[in-house]
């Protein structure tokens, strides 16, 4: 399995250790940084990882920031991404079984190291159940497609020009 991983400065120390541990387990890992302790804006990292998932360059994404929340909000703006903030065994397991989550968002500040590694392990190993849950995910995808269509038709009506906003 191919996994992209990224963090802002809050996850700077633990992220490379998770990446290394994943490689030891046989995962193919792309680490997008951040590669220094300098503060970075989490949406930039979230976009880098989420885009790789969306475009099929990797199978899953893992993101860390202070709370895991900003990363999750940003990653979910990318088409086809189902990012989830997990903080224990159950949320990790259920986000896979029922939601087929493809991006895991973690808090580097609030979760201990052992728990972080355990959540990652559970999340990567738990399969999607399909069935009625697949139907619900199709409905989520339909919402996303509808919004994309509305944006396209608005642009078309404007002749593709950006509409100036006050
Ligand atoms: C950075 O200070 C912090 O806001 C970020 O790591 C994250 O927690 C945002 O949700």
Give the end-to-end Cα distance, rounded to a whole number of Å: 47 Å
Overall number of strands: 5
Q: Structural class per helix/strand content? A: alpha/beta
> Mind telling me the CATH class of the largest domain?
Alpha Beta
Q: What is the number of helical segments per DSSP (H or I, 4+ residues)?
A: 6
Largest β-sheet summary = 5 strands, parallel
Q: H/E series, N to C?
A: EHEHEHEHEHH
The Cα radius of gyration reads 17 Å
Specify the CATH homologous superfamily of the largest domain. Answer: Sugar-phosphate isomerase, RpiB/LacA/LacB
Bound molecules: D-ribose
In CATH, the topology of the largest domain is named: Ribose 5-phosphate Isomerase B, Chain: A
- Biggest β-sheet: strands ordered side by side in the sheet: 2-1-3-5-4
Based on Cα principal axes, name the global outline: globular
Number of domains: 2
In summary, what is this structure?
This protein is of the alpha/beta class and 166 residues long. The chain contains six helices and five strands.
Keywords:
alpha/beta; 48% helix; 166 residues; binds D-ribose; 5 strands; 6 helices; Ribose 5-phosphate Isomerase B, Chain: A; five-stranded parallel sheet
Task: Describe the protein's architecture and organization.
The chain is an alpha/beta fold. The chain has two domains: 2-129, Ribose 5-phosphate Isomerase B, Chain: A (3-Layer(aba) Sandwich); 130-166, no CATH class. It has helices at 14-24, 42-54, 69-75, 89-97, 113-125, 132-157; strands at residues 2-7, 28-31, 60-65, 83-85, 103-107. Strand 4 (83-85), helix 4 (89-97) and strand 5 form a beta-alpha-beta unit. The radius of gyration is 17 Å and the shape is globular. Bound molecules: D-ribose. D-ribose binds at residues 8, 10, 42, 65-67, 69-70.
């Amino acid at each position: 399995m191919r996994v992209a991983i990224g963090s802002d400065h809050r996850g700077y120390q633990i992220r490379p250790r998770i990446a290394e541990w994943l490689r030891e387990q046989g995962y193919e890992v792309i680490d997008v940084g951040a590669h220094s302790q300098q503060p970075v804006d989490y949406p930039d990292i979230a976009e880098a990882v989420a885009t790789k998932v969306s475009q099929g360059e990797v199978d899953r994404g893992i993101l860390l920031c202070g709370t895991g929340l900003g990363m999750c909000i940003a990653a979910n703006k990318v088409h086809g991404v189902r990012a989830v903030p997990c903080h224990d065994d159950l949320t990790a397991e259920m986000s896979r079984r029922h939601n087929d989550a493809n991006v895991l968002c973690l808090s580097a500040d609030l979760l201990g190291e052992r728990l972080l590694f355990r959540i990652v392990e559970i999340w990567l190993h738990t399969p999607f159940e399909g069935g009625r849950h697949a139907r619900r995910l199709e409905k989520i995808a339909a919402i996303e497609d509808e919004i994309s269509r509305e944006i396209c038709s608005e642009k078309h009506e404007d002749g593709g020009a950006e509409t100036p906003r006050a």
